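Hey, resending since the last one bounced:
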Amino acid sequence: MPNRDSADLVVVGAGTIGGWASVFATEHGAERVVVLERGESGQGASSRAAGIVRAQGGTPQTVALGMWSIDFYRSQRERYGTDSGFRELGYLILATDEVQEREAKARVEMQRAAGLGDVRYIDAAEAARLNPTLDPATFRGGTYAPGDGCVDPPRNVRAYSIAMQRADVELRERTSFLGIRTGSDGAVTGVETPEGTIATERVLLTGGPKLREVGALVDARFFVGAVRHQVAVTEPHEAFDVERQPMVFENAIGLYWRLEEGGLLFGMSNPDEAPGQAREVDWPYLHAMEERMHRYVPIAEGLGIRKAWAATIEYCPDHLPIVGPVSTRAGDEIPGVTVATAVGHGMMWGPGVAKIGADLALTDMTEVTDVSGWGMDRFDEEGRSPSYDPIALPFPVTAADE
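The structure tokens again:
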């Protein structure tokens, strides 16, 4: 039996990224992988997400990331004997004025050049033919990718939990990460937990709304904040009792909706809300977004809310993942410590980011996409970044230290 107190890789966090990263690490040759989770696996935002998955990214790199993640979701049943419940529904990202229409058409050209061959711009009439619940008088058109879809978040947690068990990953729930030990050269030699030290030369810190606090334990400064995200599901209607109907996103305000249980699931975050931990529902704002959705989907007006929930998710002001080596506040890289966070896009980019995180932690390189612009070094002292992904929820513009 191997020594319980040593590991080839210690992963901090058992959400979507940490869970799948641990599996990918074993597939990459790591013989002993330990995952630390201070709560229970998947009980954070991973099980409370909306589950939307799209390849329609705002940069060539995020297009590649979305495509990789969708391909992975499609392959899960064959690879692991279980899956996250991916459904191909198609995704329509609305353009409501001339500026948005211009930007959308330019974005399609970029996405097609990046390899997303089936994306196209369609006018409002064609959009309404694809999704008959839409009122074509309320928007100009939008970008459409038929391969985009959604997963079932609790089923995703189940899928990676089963895959972890079959890969002999050791999951230690209710076990906090307390920090690292380093050698005379500054490289990591172990991970501290309440039960003692795990000897290891590789640590992967995964994303979540507590990532800033995790970073502080290794003297790192992550420009990642926490923010409330809300999701609700309407009561059923025959118009939504169909196998396929394109999901819709009004990117300008961050409102999206899709089929769920014979009704519509819709979600949003409030960009004007102060960042911080919040899991209770803000009913006034939820109802304001509900009314906004009714503008596009008149048939949904009058439908009651069957259920609603809120979760705290992480965000980054430039909406891009953070992956790569971890450096201290003084700028010194900590050899052996890697970070991987999808900054609030755990269902959409989670598998791809998990694969990147495992790759970088074990070999310092990845073939998923070009990640050279996604490291900690892209931020200045105020947390500003020269990069930006324009297809994202409208999170706060900064993630300065609280």
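The chain has two domains: 1-87+149-223+318-402, 88-148+226-315.

Sorry for the duplicate.
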